[in-house]
Amino acid sequence: MAALLHDAIEDCEVPREFIAETFGQDVASLVEEVTDDKSLPKAARKDDQVKTAVTKSPRAKILKLADKVSNLRAIAASAPSNWSIKRRLEYVRWARDVAKGLRGVNQKLEEQFDDAADAAERSFKPAIGLRGAKNRLEVREPAKSGCRRTPHPAIVMLLAPLAARDARTAIIEQNSGCWRALARG
Known about the structure:
Helix content: 55-70%
Shape: globular
Mean pLDDT: 77
Number of domains: 3
Largest sheet: 3 strands, mixed
Strand content: 5-15%
Oligomer: single chain
Structural class: mainly alpha
Distance between the termini: 42 Å
């Protein structure tokens, strides 16, 4: 139950007492242990997570590590549209720093964290050269129109990983004035 409620105090302003009355002191204590102090600035809260991770109880470490796995998987699958690549990179680096202090309680979960962090990093790096010599990037020229003949390099960097994640060839083509990524396996 604490896993479902882990952000209830800090993000939803659910009083600890309400959690204790409804779900018991054990659940409320665990939720409280993984709750950030919202009175601190965001940077201080993030630093605090890194510094205090090693001091958490084994159950809190598991809960926090599982939360980081979930967040990293979400970033890899579909990062928030307002998150720049820089912000995503910073999140992955920070999550890895937090995870250093959470290790030693569940090896399988730690492996899932490592896989999720690696996947999150791969999700926004150019596919060119990342998947071996058999993979290639193909840029198709648009039909005769007033559009750019080749996509802006930023378009390639953003679309190629999406197309090439599970394909041998990433195809970037223009359709109706918009560049899009296709995959061909």
